[in-house]
Design goal:
two-stranded antiparallel sheet; single chain; about 400 residues; mainly alpha; globular
Length: about 400
């Protein structure tokens, strides 16, 4: 196991991760040009008093589909949960019903899940489930990061604003550690001389910026999930896919990556889980009554609640229309400036017009799949395992 560099020991996980331009741009459309060199990387954590502002990672569902044009079967082709009773407390509050506040946020979580299907090209089973993104946001900020969050159409309730979450956004991606590493490790994706953490991650000063940055924060958290997977060898999991497949805990992937997200990849808690918890619940190998154990149980529990709802075909299906597509594109474009977002917008809007056939909107599960498929066809982005920088920074290679 390679030791972390001396300067890294006090830094969160996102300050400890590396990947290459290949990871984001590794698979291009046949007619797309090779991208030039650019920049990218980031993380954090304000939560309900349990979590810290430390490291980070990601989360997945091992069974999730994804990839080009791929969707799940049944009533929820895009597995975005909605109207889910959370069994455990959220920031000390019990009886919380999770709901999705904006259609563009739902699209972003589904898009990240679809893009994680690209990892199959590297023989990696990791899938970044929307339920993990939403559960992490609940734990980190109680989704109180937007001035424009719509009320729950069922209860009329709106997530309360959480000012403590504003600087680092809904998923708490720190400006002084995680974002700096993003910029170092994603030169093929992010031009950090042109765009910064305040532009695409922070939810501060929304009255001036007009942005809550939830959609790009979801993308950033998804990218960090892949970093985490590639770095699990450092904690003793040479083949994370195999470790999770053999684990007794049905929420092993989500809990393992939640622990990394909260405590960092150099945490002895993570190594203890890899060594001793393949045959029992992940939290049994985490310090009892600790911040880390609380975090793992909260995120894992919320994911389980959301996935149970999806298994019963209870998913997000509010109206989706052209304005929501524009909102998604406008949110993501500043972060990935090397894509042709106007082409993506035109393709997505054309697909929407065909599907709507004169209607103003359609249910999310009807309109979302063709919109995301059209957008994907116009973008070069494909999510891949870390390459040269992973080896250069940490002497490690992608999982087998």
């Amino acid at each position: 196991m390679r030791s972390p560099p001396p300067w890294s020991r006090a830094l969160p996980l996102f300050a400890l991760l590396g990947c290459s331009e290949q990871m984001l741009w590794g698979k291009l459309s046949p007619d797309s040009a090779e991208p030039g060199a650019e920049d990218g990387a980031g993380d954090g954590g304000v939560d309900d008093g349990g979590g810290d502002a430390g490291g980070d990672g990601g989360g997945t569902g091992g069974d999730g589909g994804g990839g080009e044009g791929e969707a799940e079967s049944g009533a929820c082709p895009l597995p975005v949960p909605d109207q889910v009773a959370i069994s455990g407390p959220v920031w000390g509050e019990r009886g919380v019903t999770f709901y999705v506040p904006r259609p563009s946020w739902a699209l972003a979580s589904a898009w990240v899940w679809q893009r994680s299907g690209d990892l199959a090209d590297d023989g990696i089973s990791l899938r970044i489930r929307p339920s993990w993104l939403w559960s992490t946001a609940l734990k980190e900020s109680f989704l109180g990061c937007s001035d424009t969050a719509l009320p729950d159409p069922v209860s009329g309730r709106t997530y309360a604003r959480q000012a403590a979450a504003d600087h680092d956004g809904c998923l708490q991606l720190e400006s002084t550690t995680a974002w700096i590493e993003l910029c170092r490790m994603y030169p093929g994706a992010l031009d950090c001389e042109a765009v910064g953490h305040a532009d695409v991650i922070s939810s501060a000063d929304q009255a001036t910026t007009g942005r809550d940055n939830v959609e790009p924060s979801m993308l950033a958290a998804g990218l960090f999930s892949v970093f985490t997977w590639a770095m699990l060898e450092n904690a003793g999991a040479a083949d994370p896919d195999a470790w999770v497949a053999a684990a007794a805990d049905p929420q092993a992937t989500e809990k393992l990556l939640a622990l990394a997200y909260n405590r960092g990849l150099w945490s002895p808690e993570l190594a203890a889980v890899i060594e001793g918890c393949a045959d029992r619940p992940i939290e049994d190998c985490v310090t009892p009554d600790s911040v880390a154990q609380d975090y793992v149980q909260a995120v894992g529990g919320a994911v389980a609640d959301m996935e149970a709802a999806l298994a019963e075909d209870r998913c997000y299906n509010e109206p989706l229309g052209p304005a929501d597509i524009d909102e998604l594109v406008d949110a993501l474009a500043p972060m990935l400036q090397n894509e042709d977002w106007e082409a993506a917008r035109a393709a997505a809007q054309a697909a929407a017009a065909d599907q709507l056939a004169g209607r103003e909107s359609a249910p999310f599960q009807e309109l979302g799949p063709p919109v995301l498929a059209a957008m994907e066809g116009a973008l070069r982005m494909r999510l891949r395992c870390p390459g040269a920088e992973l080896e250069a920074w940490y002497g490690q290679v992608c999982p087998p």
